Each structure stands twice: as C-alpha cells, then as structure tokens.
Amino acid sequence: MRFTFLAVALVSTSLLAQGPAQPDWAKLEEESMRHFQAIIKMDSTDPPGGEKPVVDYLKQVLEAEGIPVQIFALEAHRPNLVARFKGNGKKRPLLLMGHTDTVNVDPKKWTHPPFGAVRDGGWVYGRGTVDDKDNVIASLMTMLMLKRLNVPLDRDVIFLAEAGEEGTSRIGIQFMANQHFDAIDAEFCYAEGGSVARTGGAVKYARVQTVEKIPRAITVTARGIAGHGSVPLETNALAHLGEAVGAIAAWTPPQRINETTAAYFKRLASVSTPEEAARYRDVLSPDPKISGPADAYLRKNEPSHWSMLRTSLSPTMIGGGYRTNVIPSEGTANIDTRLAPDEDPMKFLELVKQVVNDPQVEVSYGARDTRPPTPTARLDSDAFRAIEANITKHYKAITLPTMSTGATDMAFLRQKGVQCYGIGPAADTEDGPKGFGAHSDQERILEGELFRFIRFNWDAVLDLARTR
Ligand SMILES: [Zn+2]
Q: What is the pLDDT of residues 181-201, one digit of tens each?
C-alpha cells in the first residue's frame, strides 16, 4: 500500500511539474527491440515489395492495445496501415509516417544475415535498420505509449506505415494521398529524411529535412549525317553529343538560395572550424567575388553542399552508334536534373540550351516517374519548434534545417498542404564509408541510438500534440 501511495505521489508530482507521466523507458527498450527485430526479420525488399507480413504484425500489436487500425491496399500483398489516436480536435492532426519496404540485398556482402536482426557489439544488423524500420518502430512505440498513458491531446496523432517507398509510390503514398487522403489529412507530418551526425562518438548536428529538390530528366539529342567511319565528318552526331554533355557537366548553374539553405549554412558555420565557417558564410554572399571561391571549393570538395545551392545537372546515361565503321546519325544522353524548389523549369531549360549552343543538338525534358514540386515546410511552425527543442534536449546539438538533394514521399504530402519534417536517428559519420549506410551493402543501427530516437520521437510528438 505504502509503495503504491508513494508511486502515485511521485507520478502526481511529475504531472504537475512536466505534464503527462513518462513511460517506463527501461521496460520499453526491451519491447521496442522485440518489435524492431520482428519486422527486420521479415523480408520486404522492394521490388517485389510484399509488405503484408510487416503490416499484419503492426496491426496485431496495435489492435491488442485497443488502437483501431485501417488497412488500404491497391494490391493485396502491399497494404498501407493507418492507426489513429484521437485528441479533442482543437488542432489539426499530426501524421507519423514510416515505410515498411526496403531496398534489395546481395546476401554475399553481409557478415550477419540481412534478415537476421542479429545484435552484436551494441548494433542491430539487418536490411531496414536505418531505412526505414527505425521510423516505423519509433512511430509504433509512440502510438502504444499514447494509448497506455491515455495522454489528453489537442490534435489526433495518426500513424501511416506506407508501402512502396523504395520501388513505386503508386501503391503507397500516391494511392493514400490521391484516394484516401481523409484518413491521413494532417497539419504536420514527421517522416524519414533527417539524421543526426555523430563523429568520434560525439553528436555534431542534426539535420531536419524541410524541403527537397524536384527531380526531372533532361534529354540531350545530337543529330548529324550518317556515313562511313573512314571519312571523318564535322557533323558527327556523337562528337556533338560529347561536347554538349561536357559543356553541361562543366557549367555552374546560378545559385538559388532559399530560407532553408540559408539557415543551413549559417547554422553549420556555427559548429565548424574557422576555415570551414568562413566558406559557409562566404558562399551565401550576393557578391560573386566573395561567394565565387567558396562555391568553387564546395564544388570540388563538398559536392552535396554545392548541389544544395542550385539546380544541379549530372550526365548519367549516354548512347549512340551500333558498329565501329558507321558514323551514326543520332546520339542521346540523359541528364539527371534536380531543380531548386523555386526554379522555373522552362527558363532553366533555356539556360541549358544556351550552354550547349549547338543547332545540331536538341535539349528537352524527358519523361520521369517523379515527385511533384512542393512548398517548403515552415521554420517558424510549432512542429519545427518541437523538433528543435527536443534535438537540444536529447542530443544537445544544433538543428540544421536541410534541403534534400534527393526526393522523398513527403513531396506528395507537402503538395497537399501538409507541413512535413524529415527526422532520423543518430549514425556515426564513420559508418557510411565502411559500407553500413542506408541502401548500402550492409545496414546497421546502434541500439542506444534507436532507443534515443524513440524517446526523442515521443517528446517531439507530445510537445506538438498534447493538451496545454
Ligand atoms: Zn527510406
């Protein structure tokens, strides 16, 4: 009795001091690990996908707690799961999103089996451990705790476990956004796309994705007169193609800096060496005499930073000709184009044509299964504030709002007006080059960082959703 009384007294004190009771983290770590290992052991590589076993597992766990679940499937073996914990409706919902499929594996490259979920030396090994079953489990655990502690909320918290992120969004986020948006409509969304960087075991900074570039494909087609290879022609299509591709690759498209990238470089400067900091500040200068040298340095040494500053162009495929003694009449190249969010696509194409400057060469946009252009998630929103405050609390690190140079499923939600923020657990910067990152030959997560991410997730949800 006395013990119970003491426990109640402690809980009430903490309720008064800091809102709802905190979960029993030690117990939850064991439970989180059990669920995490269970879904890592399920092969949901995409293609072909086959996310159903993961979804069945999540459904059974959620329903056992009394949390209602809806299943939406365009293809029966590739379902999407939606669960909702209701608030009082004062504010619009918060959506937690994770994808249940993974990229493929080459089992020969794995020390531990890719679907073994083996725990070794503080790590968990397996496909999906950092992309994206970590987000799935963090969202799941947050839902379970909301229900168990019966936390009063000002807004609903919705969990979407989506299919097809790695292969085709047609059966996943596009299907949900276009045909079942009612089930996931929200003011804010937390999803994959962010990260916390650790170097030498110390956290350096956290990246929160607030906007992404828009993927397009440019096709370059050179045409000329066909002929015998023994007679060189100045109109040789492949020679013109080669020059055009070279000119495109050598070109520096004009900078387009947005709110996110400006904040990113300014904040990054504050945690960099003096030399690096000067470059990150210089590159934002409107004076090309100041920004030019910094920009050139980034191009050579920090290409992902250089890409964040502008629309980028990478030649990725080239083709033409069919035998050595024939000059072909045509050659084509594909240029992976990543538009800055505020770039006018047609005006940009005109610039590329000027760079090529060859009447024998046509430059046009090609077809691409792509993500839509999207607005930026705001940096002055309650959601960003909740994320930033909890990065400070859990990681004692600076938050860098980040524009992805790649594309994510958040694009489909942002297009619908949902403000989405990409978050993620901490990983060692040394781990990527060793071949353990997302989409890499092997994949692993630090157990302690999985647990820290779950606690961070819980607080970031609570701060945004609980009744004030
Ligand atoms: Zn992913």
A: 999 999 999 999 999 999 999
